[in-house]
Amino acid sequence: MMKRNVWLLCLAVVFASLPSVGRADDGDRGDDEEPVFRLGMIGLDTSHVIAFTRYLNNPKNKTGCRVVAGFPGGSPDFPASANRVEKFTEQLRDQHGLEIVNSIEQLCEKVDGILLESVDGRPHLDQAKIVIQAGKPLWVDKPVTDNLADVIELFRLAKENNVPCWSSSAARYYEGVAGAQDNEELGQIVACDVFGSSSWAEFHPSLYLYGIHAVEPLFTVLGTGCETVQRIKTDRVDTVIGLWTGGRVGTFRDLRGGKADFTTIIYGKNKMVTAKSSGYAPLLKQIVEFFKTGNPPVSAEETIEIYAFMSAADESQAQGGAPVSVAKLIEQARGGQAQGEQAQGE
Fold first, then answer.
1. What is the pTM (predicted TM-score) of this model?
2. By Cβ atoms counted within 10 A, which residue in 30, 123, 184, 345 is the most buried?
């Protein structure tokens, strides 16, 4: 009996020492068994590609997504792109293990979804066309493009081809901004002030590159329905005033030469709330959910109105501060796009 017990004990020790099959360590349990949504990045010329990859690929965040490949892209005539694309490409390849490919077509073959990250909005439409043709769900980093007509066209193509697509600044999901419309403590929202920067505007309307981080919360809080936009710009202050349906007012302010944090002040009937930056994580959680479900959390119509607001700001400035109709500007952009398509077909 004792010999039999010794034999069983030895056998148990042998089996315990064998490598486990189909079992992960406690820290990674289940990760290998769950399908991973493979993501590719277009445009490795913004700090976002590093920050996003760190979050998405971190096992502790349990995103179910992984950035696996990237196409560097880059704009030689745009310093913010040309001066950074090589550094960020090397960092993603050497530190994060991304496969670097030579074309967007090749990238689409290797992934399940695309993050369009190019810091320059000018090539976005052409880059997005390839992704849409491949049928890959698409998230577009700011700015969507460099003009309103192309913003409209990008979303039109995505809808026409049944490709899930959306865009957003991280500022939409800052604490205090997200959910403001349903905040009972605030009560009915009557106005909103946002502070940002319009100082960086190479090749783009003046609010597209940095101003978007303030304008996005404005629409998150007040919703769609901006009717007119006026702009007053001096050496000290750049102010854009939007009039919404129901007499609500939203303002963008750049305190030129002064401190202008990305701050949102929301005025409700019952209370006033000030919201500040909450980082990238809330946005990235929305991006993960989008790729898993295929449901964009922000409508194309709202994003188009946001870019119309920013375009209207420049148009108002050109007209000496006159009010510009957002609806008419969108209509003009749609008409110009249709004329361009007709010209190409002739």
1. 0.87
2. 123
